[in-house]
Amino acid sequence: MTIYQNLIAGEWVGSDATKNINPSDTNEVVGLYADGTAEDTKNAIAAAKAAFPAWSRSGIWERHVILKKAGDEIMARKDELGALLAREEGKTLPEAIGETIRASQIFEFFAGEALRLAGEVIPSVRPNIGVEITRDPLGVIGIITPWNFPIAIPAWKIAPALCYGNTIVFKPAELVPACSWAIVDILHRAGLPKGVLNLVMGKGSVVGQAMLDSPDVAGITFTGSTGTGRRVAAASIEHNRKFQLEMGGKNPMVVLDDADLTVAVEAAANSGFFSTGQRCTASSRLIVTEGIHDKFVAALTQKLETLVVDNALKPGTHIGPVVDEKQLKTDTDYIEIGRQEGAKLAFGGELITRETPGFYLQPTLFTEATNQMRISREEIFGPVVSVIRVKDYEEALATANDTPFGLSAGIATTSLKHATHFKRNSEAGMVMVNLPTAGVDFHVPFGGRKGSSYGPREQGKYAAEFYTTVKTAYTLA
Got the DSSP string for 284-329? Predict the structure, then answer.
């Protein structure tokens, strides 16, 4: 079987390899992918540092053309790359193709942004002096991405980094190297100069640590667990480097008495269970007022009974497998914790078997939960959702905000008054009204508050805040 190698200084570099296993069919090896070393990482950083002077001064048309080529190829290969994504991560094929299309759109957007780079020219308060305010690229960017969005998240970090003239050392999650390798291969063939984009696949404790230890990495953008994010922050402060963190969430979906029941159930089911609940924006706390609580639980349970859990590539599948055995154990451990805490298991919670061996788990719904339970406080990252009964809107808002996280929040209501108040007073970076808490457009800022995020927002024109540094220049006329 071919070993997919790391890309360092424009060359494909061999090393030991690890198997990429299909969670929908554990008998299938998706591919063999390089297991990089600390030395590989140091070489990649050196290559990126050497390439930075030329790339940072490259023409905007060159950057535009490369990013546009990448976006076009990803779109042309959306079915192929979507199937690859479904095989390695376990998203259903429609979800995987949708994520691939989003990656293409991100590259298209930043291809356009490369042509819209701008600054300011303003007068000084002193006579005969002009002031120019511009943005310079940061330098070598370390990119560390998670397994749950294996093509979209790499895209929304790589595209702006290149657009604004930075060079890159990229470490994808160990579980999902295939889509990352494909993106890097596409960009490499699109004409990136040697050393501008370097891929080092491997263990976080090896590759990631080597990136954190290097004084030559000017910025690190990280998406992953809260614990690892804190380590990224501590190491970055030591080197006085810029860092950007996207971490956990325990996102609330409020359902008020006046909600359209059908809209509320669809939003809750999508938020909590689609993509197997493996989204940082997933809503795992459903905060429901008394008047609609019983009807909502009955309708949501009825909806869950119709959802098909099966092989991600199989037509008609609504929910694919959990990503791997370790995450499956985390999910089942939390289901047991919920039982022990006194929540009522209203639906699911059982391991299931299918035609192919995989990590299949029924969507799990707890009722009679409180906001103090661990299942309501800690991120599970699986298809496990709790319903918390509250008296009224005021209690619902207070409960929604009572969390160490603040990424996404939603409300189902037909009241303009409550929708407006919730948007203004929700302590989350993103707020949805009568929509799932997951699902953000590619051209708008993505990020949260409190323990969910640190640093500038990702995506859209706001990405410039992280990937550039502001320069102020004075000229005597």
Answer: EEEEEEHHHHHHHHHHHHHHHHHPPB--TTSTT-SB---SSHHHHH
Structure pTM?
0.96
Q: What's the rounded Cα separation, in Å, for the pair 266 and 436? A: 8
408-460 pLDDT, tens digit each: 999 999 999 999 999 999 999 999 999 999 988 999 999 999 999 999 999 99
Report pLDDT for 439.
85
**Domains defined along the chain, listed by start:** 3-247+452-476 (3.40.605.10), 251-433 (3.40.309.10)
Phi, psi angle pair for 52, to nearest 5°: -60, -45
Catalytic residue numbers read 246, 280
Rounded Cα distance between 420 and 216, Å, is: 46
Task: Give dist(CA 399, CA 389) in Å, integer.
Answer: 10
The closest of 139, 131, 129 to 166, measured between CA atoms, is: 139
Residue 148: is its pLDDT beyond 90?
yes
d(CA 272, CA 35): 34
